[in-house]
Amino acid sequence: MTKRTTSATTEEDNELKEALAVLISSTRNKKRPFSLTYVAKWLEIAVTKLGSYSVVAHRLGISPKMLRQFSYVRRLSKPVQKLFELRELDSVDALAHLAMLRSTDQRPVAQALASGQIDTIDVRAVVELRESDQVRPISELIDQVKASKTSKEYVVEFIIRGSCDPDAVRAIITRYIPKEEIVRLEVNGAVGRLVLTPKGRESLGKAAKKLGTSLRSVMAAILQGARRS
After folding, report:
1. What number of other Cβ atoms are within 10 A of residue 205's Cβ?
2. Which of 30, 42, 166, 205 is most deeply packed, by most CB within 10 A?
3. Please, what is the end-to-end C-alpha distance for the chain in angstroms?
4. What is the mean pLDDT of residues 88-93?
5. What is the layout of strands, in order, in the sheet containing 191-196?
6. pTM
């Protein structure tokens, strides 16, 4: 083997090591250090050198299906790829669902997601709507998802033992549920009625898990815990 051949082989080995290092840091850490476009670039290099997604996935200790999602960046239109490059969008789940849309639909949905008008779950809903309706403009599908999202409210009724002062009850509840997710709180004697946004409902579920109780009993646990503290 000539020096030139040895040098080329070493360079290829170093490139593969760098590709694997980027992929490891981006699949094993909760906070990914690189953009999805950057990860996709090194994934392509690793697959080229090792021969398949399965071999690369085995080296990383993850499933080929999970690994392949990073490659979906190539299915996105250039403006949407730019949003991921700048990390204005940075979710693998969002990437996977945006890639299911035709290129003309991707940008409006991506921009709505980047601006906070919709979230990743809403992107999935837009994709499902598009699958069943190939005719309507994408803007109408986005508006439909936004409208259905904002119209959802969750009502929780509970018994108040002790002080029935609405402000005191609200102060206790906002320890677990952000005030902006509370549509309204009604107190009528010893009966309370809490109306929540979908995110407020999620917060209530987290509170139940934290307090080790059921969703049905969580309000009693929240109020009882506050009195003990």
Report:
1. 12
2. 42
3. 76
4. 95
5. 154-159, 191-196, 182-188
6. 0.62
